[in-house]
UniProtKB/TrEMBL annotation:
ATP binds at residue 71. Residues 380-390 have a biased composition (Basic residues). Residues 343-357 have a biased composition (Polar residues). GO terms for molecular function: kinase activity. It comes from the Eukaryota. This is non-specific serine/threonine protein kinase.
Amino acid sequence: MPPKAQAAGKGRGPAKRKLAEEFPPGEVLTDTSKKSWKLGAPIGQGGFGLLYLANENSSKTVGADAPYVIKVEPSDNGPLFSELKFYMRAAKPDLIQSWMTSHKMKYLGVPKYWGSGLHEKGGKRYRFMVMDRFGTDLQKKFEETGRRFPRKLVLQLGLRLLDILEYIHEHEYVHADIKASNLLLSHNNPNQVYLVDYGLAYRYAPEGVLKEYKEDPKRCHDGTIEFTSIDAHKGVSPCRRSDLEILGYCMVQWLCSKLPWEDKLQDPLYVRDVKLQCRDNVSEFMSKCFSSQDKPDELQKFMEEVKTLSYTDKPAYQKLRSILEAGLKSIGTKDDDKLEFSSAVSSNGAGPSSSAKTSKRKKVVDYKEESDDEVDGSPAKKRKSPKKKGVKEMKTASPKKKVATPKNTAARPKKALVEMGTQTTPGLKRGRGRPKKKAEPVDSE
């Protein structure tokens, strides 16, 4: 589970981690199963890790069409180690293929784990992990389309994520950080989307034993502030309903452009209180986001269903799918496996509070230290990692305070992104949304 944040007033910021040394193209790494992998050009650089194109070791040079990527970081850093536990337990290719076969699925948006190990160079040790290569993230697509996705696309993404979440939930984990920047398109098929970044993944049922509900004020507000669950706001470890609640917030934002609490993301207690109000009255929440004649009934029904879940309940995944499928039918379409990202501002029915002009996001807690500079298939230039601010101590407050409906403010400036044609891998964030707390190894709960 994620470590506690340090208070800014104590004169101590996030712990600094060692930077990864850049390896030359052609460097060969051998994983724990004795399989060799050859590195190509570095295509991503974060605060302490590097991302390389890669392929199975051969006499050929690793080209721009390489099907794999390898994340490398100093062995005594923690983020990659944390994610490795999830990938090794739940993302082996044979496990994923078996699930797909038994559930008659064409594909499942969970990244496959191809290998990992330790590599020594210059007297230093590095940890690495091999994964599939992916394309661009959905946050970039969201910005490109004026911060609105068509209703059909939103419902299709919801269906894909239900498939993904059911799989990882059945393998004892929850993701806890679903958002557009953690959803990547396939490198080869733009109609396939994958959920990545398991840095906050939590083993909610080790060996089948469910964790108990327990509030911890020292762990409040973990995750990405605009989407994180009410459980997380209260310092409770994430559970299956948490993932589904986060998915609900994502679908609403993708369709209407802006959530009611996005004007005050710097105040996590305010965000928590508005989410509590919205959970208590889902209909009123939807009215804040959409005009009355264009309110998507299926999203309201989805959130009402999630609201009925207790902390340890197993969700009715098929019922939730049926709700979204009914939404597709209501607009005269169906899931045809084609993801179309064209803007549909005039048809989404966003109300006054869902204007495409949104306020600038402010940092609440420095959950992640790293940032990404990514390039399109060419060697990454070494850049200085941004200086990190200390984290602010969260004060507890009564949830009974009166909360005013947030008003739209100045337009949100688009964040410049560089197309790189591959994924942001574990521990290599693009800096979209709120930063997150570091996760400790997921098997240490």
